Amino acid sequence: MRVLALCLTLLAPAAQAQVETSLELVLLADASGSIDTDELAFQRQGYADALMSDAVQNAIEATLHGSIAVTYVEWATNQVQVVDWMLIDGPEAARAFADALTVAPRAAYGRNAIGAALLEGQRLIEDNDIDGFRHVIDFSGDSMGNSSGPPIVPSRDAVLATGTTINALPILRPDSPRRAGYDLERLYAENIIGGPGAFMVTAEGRESFAQAVQRKLFLEIAGQMPVDVASR
Fold first, then answer.
1. Residue 193 falls within a domain, yes or no?
2. Is the dihedral of CA 70, 189, 106, 176 positive or negative?
3. Which residue from 4, 8, 11, 194 has the highest number of Cβ atoms inside 10 Å of its Cβ?
């Protein structure tokens, strides 16, 4: 019996080893009804350019593994993984990710479902074959609506309980009041971000979006939290 058991063990396929990397990063981008086709393309290009920038590439190179794993997800009523997990270990891999991102068709539609989006980001982290030293969900959006799916705060808390950090990039539209009435930055700080080293970088509008994305990616990859941005 022992010989048979040994033979069966030798014949069984070896368990697939997980890929080790310094960071698993979910880019969770708003694709709800408030984001039109031009804005969606602009957002994607902003993330693509940021990932290929010298600052972000230098941050990746300086990590323990010299690589990070990234996926791009757009959220609305539904959530769509626009670009699957990809190991970014240099300019060539970053270019491949950027190319896949900028040509993919739109597939997320409808109103906001932020709670569901956060839970989907965590599911993608748990279900992949990657072993990242840190787990981060990079959430961006231009409102705090949650028209369908689970509520935001319990969903956020469930994600944080796993050890994942949630950072945020609130996008202020031209008609968005600030520091009075509907304060998107305060709402994101209180209801969305959290976890070790969590922070928030605000995009003041279309003009500063690309710069804000690049800064945020650099900080996330480098594992830094500047003192001049909102944190929790």
1. yes
2. negative
3. 194
* CATH number of the domain residue 156 falls in: 3.40.50.410
Round to whole Å and give the CA distance between 61 and 68.
9
- Alpha-carbon distance of 67 to 21, in angstroms, equals 6
- Cα distance between residue 30 and residue 200, in whole Å: 16
Q: How many CA atoms lie within 13 A of 118 on its CB side?
A: 31
Query: Does some domain include residue 5?
Result: no
167-209 per-position pLDDT tens digit: 999 998 665 544 444 688 999 999 999 999 999 999 987 778 8
Burial status of residue 126 (CB atoms within 10 A of its CB: 0-12, 13-18, 19 or more): exposed
How buried is 185 (Cβ within 10 angstroms: 0-12 exposed, 13-18 middle, 19+ buried)? middle
Does residue 10 have a pLDDT over 80?
A: no
Q: Are 138 and 216 in contact (CB under 8 A)?
A: yes
